[in-house]
Amino acid sequence: MFTQSKAVPLKQVSINNHFWSHYTKLVREVVIPYQWEALNDRISDAEPSYAIQNFRIAAGLAQGEFGGMVFQDSDIAKWLEAVGYSLALTPDPHLEQLADEVIDIIALAQQPDGYLNTYFTLKEPGKRWTNLFDCHELYCAGHMIEAAVAYYQATGKRKLLDVMCRYADLIDSVFGLEAGKIKAYDGHQEIELALIKLYHVTGAAKYLNLSKYFIDERGVAPSYLLQEFEKRGRITHWQPGIVVSTPNLIYTQSHLPVREQKDAVGHAVRAVYMYSAMADLAILTEDQELKESCLRLWKSMVHKQMYITGGIGTTHHGEAFTFDYDLPNDTIYAETCASIGLIFFAQRMLQLEVKSEYADVMERALYNNVIGSMSLDGKHYFYVNPLEVWPQASESNPSRHHVKAVRQKWFGCSCCPPNVARLIASLAEYIYSSNEDTIYTHLYIGGEATIELKNNQIQLQQESNYPWDGSIKFIVSPQNSQNFTLAFRIPGWSDRIKLHVNGELIENLKIVNGYVLINRIWNDGDTVLLDLPMTVQLIQANPSVRSNAGKAAIQRGPLVYCLEEIDNGQQLASISLATNSKLTAAFDANLLGGIVVIEADASVEAAEDWSEELYRPLKKNVAPLRIKAIPYYLWGNRAEPGEMSVWIRTV
Amino acid sequence: MFTQSKAVPLKQVSINNHFWSHYTKLVREVVIPYQWEALNDRISDAEPSYAIQNFRIAAGLAQGEFGGMVFQDSDIAKWLEAVGYSLALTPDPHLEQLADEVIDIIALAQQPDGYLNTYFTLKEPGKRWTNLFDCHELYCAGHMIEAAVAYYQATGKRKLLDVMCRYADLIDSVFGLEAGKIKAYDGHQEIELALIKLYHVTGAAKYLNLSKYFIDERGVAPSYLLQEFEKRGRITHWQPGIVVSTPNLIYTQSHLPVREQKDAVGHAVRAVYMYSAMADLAILTEDQELKESCLRLWKSMVHKQMYITGGIGTTHHGEAFTFDYDLPNDTIYAETCASIGLIFFAQRMLQLEVKSEYADVMERALYNNVIGSMSLDGKHYFYVNPLEVWPQASESNPSRHHVKAVRQKWFGCSCCPPNVARLIASLAEYIYSSNEDTIYTHLYIGGEATIELKNNQIQLQQESNYPWDGSIKFIVSPQNSQNFTLAFRIPGWSDRIKLHVNGELIENLKIVNGYVLINRIWNDGDTVLLDLPMTVQLIQANPSVRSNAGKAAIQRGPLVYCLEEIDNGQQLASISLATNSKLTAAFDANLLGGIVVIEADASVEAAEDWSEELYRPLKKNVAPLRIKAIPYYLWGNRAEPGEMSVWIRTV
C-alpha cells in the first residue's frame, strides 16, 4: 500500500487541553482580531501592511496606490485561511460576516478574465507573468486557494472557492507544456500544495495535473527563470533600475529537476513548501521516485541542518540553508514560516509512511520554534528564532541585526504572523491519522475525535496535562465493538513507556516504526493510559556541529529549555554545567501562566577579579550558581530585552 | 615634558636577526618584485591591479581607460614607500632605477596645477573634490606623500617630494577655514598623518597646520560630508545610478569632533590612521586634550575590542568595530591594514608616554596578525585574519564568505599586501626610542643601532634568537663613557625576568611603566643580558567576551599559537584541554623553516559512536589526543585548506 494513513480532517477533531486551548482561544480571540487591525494599518508604531487597502483599491472601493511588498495579498489569504479553520471548530457569526465582507472585496478585485493579484492589477497592469522569479504571482494565488478551500470547508460557502477556481483555470490556461502556454513555474513555491487542496475539495483532476506540472517542470534545463531574467534585461524587482548579476537558481530550488535534488538547499520556506507538494503528489500519484526524493531531502534537512528547536535555515542571506552541520546559534535564521512548512512536510510524510520521526519533528518544531515565535499576548512576533541572543550584538553587530531580541508588532514582510495563526487554528488535523483498521495518534493534544474506520466510527477522547506531564488517557468509544488497532507514537525523547488498557499493564508491547500498536476488540468506554516519563534530559549535538561542541541543551518532554538573563544574570556564556548535574523540574504556577521550571547547580566564572584587562594567563575562578531554565518558547516574555541561550557549556 | 621619547630613525638601525632578517630579505627579494608584477597585472589567475597602467595613461604614455578601485593609486604609493624603506637600509641600484622610472611616470601624470589622481584625471575630470566621502582623493594624496618622504629620506632624491609638495600646496589652497576654501576633510583619513611626515622633512609649518585643520574640522556640525551627499543628489560612487540612504558618519569617524569621541567606532583602518595623526599632533602641538582623546580611544580599542592576535575590526560590514567585548572568532574581520595602523598608533603613543602596554600591543599585532597575513613565500596574502576557520563555512555560509581559508595572490582592493611590505621594510624604526639621556628598547629584534643622546652617540648591538628564545644580549658602545639609562621593556607576557650587566646579576631592578631602567656609567663593550623566560601560557579572555567563554589560547612569548587540522584532525571544536595540562615546547627544525611547536595531552569527542542522529541524550565519550599547536602566524602554509582555531575549549 502506497499510502499508510490519512490525516483525520479538522472538523472531526476538537482540542480540549489546558496548554493548547489557551493557544486556540488566543488565536480566535486575540490573534485573528489583532491581525485584522494590522492588515488594516491600525496598529500604532508598527510597519503598515496595506494589504486590505490594496484589495479595496483594486476592487474600486478606494483610491490610492499599491503599498507594501509584491506578495502582500498573501497576508490576507493566510488570515482568511486561519479564519476558516477557526470557524470550522468554533462558529462565530461576527467573524464570519467580516470574512464574507473581505471575500466580497476580493471577488470585486478579480479581473474579468479571472486574474487576481493587486500588485500587478494596480502597479504593473501590463506585466503579468513577466517576472516569475521575483514577483510571487503564483505564490499569492496559492495562498488564496488555500484560504478558499479552508473557508469553504468551514462554512460551506463557495464564493471565494469559485473565485479561485476561475483564477486557477486561468493559470491552467497560461502555464503548461502545451503549445502556446508558458513553460514556467513560480519563483516561490506554494501554489503546488494549494492546487492539491483544490483538487481534494473539487475533485477536478486538472488541478492535480497542474500541480504535478509545476513540480515536474521545475529545474528543467534550459532554465525558464534565467531566460525570463535575460528577456527582462537582467533587472530585478528588488533593486529597480539597475542591472544585476545572474540570479541563483539554488535559492528557488530550480537548479535541478526535483527528482535529482539530493540536499536541502536554498530558501528554506520555498524548500519545505515544495517538499510538501512533492509528498502530496507522491501519495496521490503513487510516484516512487518522488517519494525517494522526499525521503532524501527530509534526511538532508532533519539529520543535518535542523536546529534543536525545529528551526531550519542557517543564514539570513537568502533566508537559506547553508551546508551540513552548519548550525550557528547566534547568526541563525530559523524563520517561523520555515518551521511551519517543515510541519506541513512532516504531516505529509507521515501519510506516506508512519514513522515516529516525522511526528517527532512536527512536535519539535511546533512546541519550540513555532509557538516561541509569538508572544504570550498574541500580539508580538519573531521572524527569526535564534538560540542565542545578546541584545547588544543584535543592535550593534550588523551580522546579527536580523536577530531581534524582542518580538515585533508587525513586519513590512509579515509572512510569519498569519502563518502561525493558520497553523494553530488548524492544529487539530495534525493529531491523528488513520487507515482502514488503525488509528494513529501522533500528537498528545487533548480533545475529542471522530474517526471513520472500515465499517465503523470511533470516538476517541484524549486527556492529559501534556506537555507538562506525560500521563495521557484515551477513552475509546466505537460505534460497534470491533477489532482494530490503536497506535500511539513513542516520542524520540522518551526512553521507556508504560501502557495500561482498562487498568491492566500491557507487557511486551508491539512497537513498529516508533509506534506502539494495540490490536484488540475495542468496546465502548475502554481506556488506554499511556505513561511517557518526563525526565529532564541533557542533549548534545553531533560533534560535526562545531557551534555546539562541549555544550548541552536541556530538554524535558517535547520542550527545549533555555536560560534567560532575568533568571541567571548577564554573560550566560560564563555559566557551565557539570554533565552529571542533578536537574530538578518543578511546576511554578506563578511564572508565565504556570510552567515547569528546571533548576540545577552550575558554575559561573567569577567576574569580580577582572580589572580592565582583556586577556590574562588562565586562572580558574568559578563561583556556584543555581541556574533556572524556562521553556524556550517562552523566552523574551518578561521585562527588558536580555541575553538568552539554549546551549549551555558543560564541564 | 610632553614628549617622553622619539623614535630612532630607520637609517640608524639595522636588523640582523634570524627571524626578522628572513622577513626583511623576503620583502626585498620577493615581495617588492612580486608586487611590482602584480601592480603591472602580470600575475596569472590574480585579480588585475591596473595601478601602473592608470598612471601610464594619465601620464600620456599609454592609451586606455582607468581600471580598478577609485583608490588604486595608493597601491603604487605604498609600494614605493616600501621601496624607499628597503633602499634606506639596503641599496639596490636596479630597484632604485625602477622606482625612479615610476616616479617619472607619476610626475608626468601630475596636472599643471599640481593635482595628482589618476581616477579623477582619467574618469571624472570635472568632478574633483565633489565626493570626499567615497572617493579617497586625499587618502591617495596622503599615501603618495608618505612614499615621497620615504623615498627622499632613503635616496636624497627630491623629485617625488617636490611633486607631492606641489600637490600638498594645491590641497592647502583648496581646503581650510578661510573664505573661498572648502571646509571639508576626506572620507578616509590618511593625509593627516602623511602631512606630519611632510612637515618633518620640509620643516614647513603649513603642512603641520593643514594636518591640524583636517583633524580639527572633522566631525564639526553641520556635517560637510552630509551636505556634500545631498548636493550630489544622494548618490554614491559605489552603486552608480541609484539614490541611497544617508551615509553613516560613524563609519568615517566624522560623527563627532575627534576630541569628543569616546569609543573606537567605525571603519577600523580609518580609525587607527586618524588616531596616529592625532597622537602626532598631540606631540607636536603639546595638545593635552588631544592626548586625552588618544588615551581614551586607545583604551576603548585595546582593552575592549582587540583580538588576542592584535587584530581589530569585528565585522566585515564596513570593516568596522562593533562594540565592547564583541569579538567573534569566526565572523571576524581583523583586516591586516588595521593592525598595521594599530602599530602606527602604538608607536606614536610610546613617544607621548613610555608605557610597556603600547609596545606590547605593537608586538602582539606584529608577530601575529600582521606577519600572519602573508604566506611564507611572500606571494599570498590574507585581508581578513580569522581566529577560527572552517573552510566549508567560508565557502558555503555567506556570513563567512569574507573569511578566506587560503591566502590570495592579490585582491581587487589590494590595500593590505603593500601595507605589509612597507611595515616590514620600515620595521627597524619601531625598535628603539630615545630622549636626552635614555634609550628605550621596545622590540627585541637583533641588529645594530646608532643613537644620539645629549652630547654622545651610542652604538647598541642587540643579539637574540627571539621570538623562539627570550635570552637577549646587548653590547653597548658609547662614543664616550657616560652616565645614561638603558630602558628595556618587560613584555606583558613575561612574569619574571633576570638581567645581568657585564655578567653580574642585577638585584632590585628599577621598573617604571613596564620598563626596567639601568642607569650607570656605560663604557665601551659593556654587556647587558636580559632573560625573559618563555614559558608556555594558557591565556583566557575577559568573561565579557562571550565568544571565548570556557576557552583558552596558547601563547609563548609574543607568539599566539593555533591548532590546524593537518596536525590535529577535523572538528577542532571537539578538542578540549585540561586547564592544568602540561604544555611542552620543542624546536622542530624541519617544520615550516624551524619553529617552536607546542604539544599537550588533550581530549577529543569520539565521533565513531554517532550514527545519523543530529541530537541525542548526552553521553560523555572522549578519547585522548596529543595535540600540536603551531604559531598562529604560520597557519595555512601547508597543504590543502583545513580547519584552524586559536581558542581551545578547556575543561
UniProtKB/TrEMBL annotation, chains A, B:
Q: What's in the keyword line of the UniProt record?
A: Hydrolase
Q: Report the InterPro entries cross-referenced here.
A: 6-hairpin_glycosidase_sf, Beta-AFase-like, Beta-AFase-like_GH127_C, Beta-AFase-like_GH127_cat, Beta-AFase-like_GH127_middle
Looking up Pfam families in the UniProt record yields: Beta-AFase-like_GH127_cat, Glyco_hydro127C, Glyco_hydro127M
All copies of domain Non-reducing end beta-L-arabinofuranosidase-like GH127 middle, residue ranges: 438-534
User: What are the Non-reducing end beta-L-arabinofuranosidase-like GH127 C-terminal domain coordinates in residue numbering?
Assistant: 536-649
In its UniProt record, a GO molecular function of this protein is: hydrolase activity
Key word Hydrolase present = yes
Q: Is the keyword Hydrolase in the record?
A: yes
Biological process per Gene Ontology, one example term: carbohydrate metabolic process
The segment(s) forming the Non-reducing end beta-L-arabinofuranosidase-like GH127 catalytic domain are 12-428
Source superkingdom: Bacteria
What is the protein's name according to its record? Glycoside hydrolase family 127 protein
Q: From what organism does this protein derive?
A: Paenibacillus psychroresistens
